[in-house]
Amino acid sequence: MGASTGPPPESLAGAFGAGDRGRAEAARVPRRLVVVVFDGALMGSMSFACGVFDIAAHYGALPGMDLRIVAGEPGAAIIGGGLSCAVPHDLEAVRTADLIVVPNLPQPTAERPPGPVLDALRAAHARGARVAGLCSGAFVLAAAGLLDGRPATTHWSVAARLAELHPAVRVDASVLYIDDGDVLTAGGGAAGMDLGLHLIRSMLGSTNANRVARAMVVPPHRPGGQAQYVEAPVQELDAADPVADTIAWALERLDAALPVSVLARRAHMSRRNYDRRFREITGSAPARWLVHQRVIRAQQLLETSDMPVDEVARRSGFPSAAALRARFRQDVGVTPTAYRETFAHRSVSGRGLS
């Protein structure tokens, strides 16, 4: 994680003020984050496993966080680019961890993970730690029994094998990540970053999560329900692209009715071609994308204003406060009022990341 090799740029470090550090301390912010790896783990997987937290801590959003890379088996080493790095900590660190992340298991279907690491994960979860499995790391959580009866995801290429080996797990390979409270799972690659940003958002609010994402130059929020596999790769937005133009146009008018047919007409395209191109750009259907953007707008208004919930609903494009509450609870997991009580006034007006 290159961002942690030197002092943060002043323009970025100033974005998280002392007041936010104090509020972060009061939130459910992990004091010790442990990443459990096995021999042969790739260096690249570390960026997905803990890069979001490392960068957030670097810029002052997670003060005092202790990040440790832990060996899930004796003699474990992280490899990549011709290098081999011994893992510095053993399972003792898991005992005091608040959040435990298990990234890729090099051979997820070859054999059962070592017993000591499974015992350590069970004990940590039993005392209240949150546990997350990224990609094939879900196999480790499943072997520990932590996914029994729960929804979980993993990389789409090994999802069938996870379901075969652990029939008690409700495997869903169609989503980026699943937050089931104390146990979380994510698909492969960048889905681990999506889950990390989701956790930052749940702890520090959407404004600060967006600032971390901006510092990383990654999309601030892909919802967990977004499909893992998109037939065509997401492309950069081109100002000359008529669909990209309608996306920017819609974001400035979320408080208005925006039927997809209107967007298609604005782009001078048939509805079918518009839907196809929209999915190529965003990975999502237009109507679903619009609802998600409205939820994000509501989050921002709840964090930064005192306006009544019905006014938040109107400015976010929902027909009523009841409609906002139903969708907000579905997407965010809490009511708008509860969200405001947790995150109101946590946003900051600092420099750089704003």
What attributes characterize this protein structure?
alpha/beta, Arc Repressor Mutant, subunit A, 11 strands, 2 domains, disordered N terminus, single chain, 354 residues, 15 helices, six-stranded mixed beta sheet
Strand line-up of the largest beta sheet: 3-1-6-7-11-10
Tally of helical runs: 15
Q: Based on the structure, what is the oligomeric state of the protein chains?
A: single chain
Q: Would you identify the CATH architecture of the largest domain?
A: 3-Layer(aba) Sandwich
Into which percentage range does the β-strand content fall? 5-15%
- Biggest sheet overview: 6 strands, mixed
Global mean pLDDT = 82
What is the CATH fold-level name of the largest domain?
A: Rossmann fold
Report the count of strand segments. 11
Question: Secondary-structure blueprint of this entry?
Answer:
Blueprint: H1 10-13, H2 18-26, E1 32-37, E2 41-42, H3 43-58, E3 66-71, E4 77-80, E5 83-86, E6 99-102, H4 115-126, E7 130-134, H5 138-143, E8 151-152, H6 159-165, E9 170-171, E10 177-179, E11 183-186, H7 191-204, H8 206-216, H9 242-251, H10 260-266, H11 271-282, H12 286-304, H13 309-316, H14 321-332, H15 336-343
Parallel strand pairs: 1-3, 1-6, 2-4, 6-7, 7-11, 8-9
Antiparallel strand pairs: 4-5, 10-11
